Amino acid sequence: MSSPKLVGLTGGIGSGKSTVAKIFEILHIPVYYADDRAKWLMNFDQELKSKIQEAFGTDSYDSEGNLNRSYLASTVFSDTEKVAKINSLVHPAVRKDFEIWASHQNAPYVLKEAALIFETGGEKKLDAIINVSSPLKIRISRVLMRDSHRSLDQVNHIIDQQMPDEEKNERADFVIKNTDTKMLIPQVLAIHQKLTP
């Protein structure tokens, strides 16, 4: 069994990349959801847990050994140096986990769904990148509708941390335009045909 091509699926918050991932899954393409997996690894990967505790103190986990999200949110995510530090621990763990997972998949290609691929240099380990692109206004209204706990300021802050759509589109191998006027399924099918030998 030859190993599958590794394809990144990215897009800014509210771009609709999860919806696109679901369409690929209907085509029997395995999808690795990097953000969900990162949360799992931060709770269950002993090596990663000890590195996080070493870097941010024992308060990073509660007495049950679960990640202390509120502590990390208050101490880490307001400090760019600490964000860079936690990313430098979590991203390599996710990358390794993804490679192991991908090696067990029987498909022409697999998708790694992640908000930050170009921002973390993750594209170097992938064979191709698909960017889901959507107008900023539409993205913001989608997120505000979906995540009632987020304010407009918080959404704008997340967008500011991500690479601009135009730059992602230039660097990606494929671009899916998720607007109110373009159908997603034909765009996904066209890419699927190109990636399937």
UniProtKB/TrEMBL annotation:
The EC number on file is 2.7.1.24
What CDD domains is this protein classified in? DPCK (cd02022)
Per the record, its GO cellular-component terms are: cytoplasm
Q: Which InterPro entries match?
A: Depp_CoAkinase (IPR001977), P-loop_NTPase (IPR027417)
Which keywords has UniProt assigned to this entry? ATP-binding, Coenzyme A biosynthesis, Cytoplasm, Kinase, Nucleotide-binding, Transferase
Q: Does the keyword ATP-binding apply?
A: yes
Q: Where in the cell is it found?
A: Cytoplasm
Q: Which Gene3D superfamilies match?
A: P-loop containing nucleotide triphosphate hydrolases (3.40.50.300)
- Recorded family membership: Belongs to the CoaE family.
What is the name listed in the Swiss-Prot or TrEMBL entry for this protein? Dephospho-CoA kinase
Q: Which organism is it from?
A: Algoriphagus zhangzhouensis
* Name of encoding gene: coaE
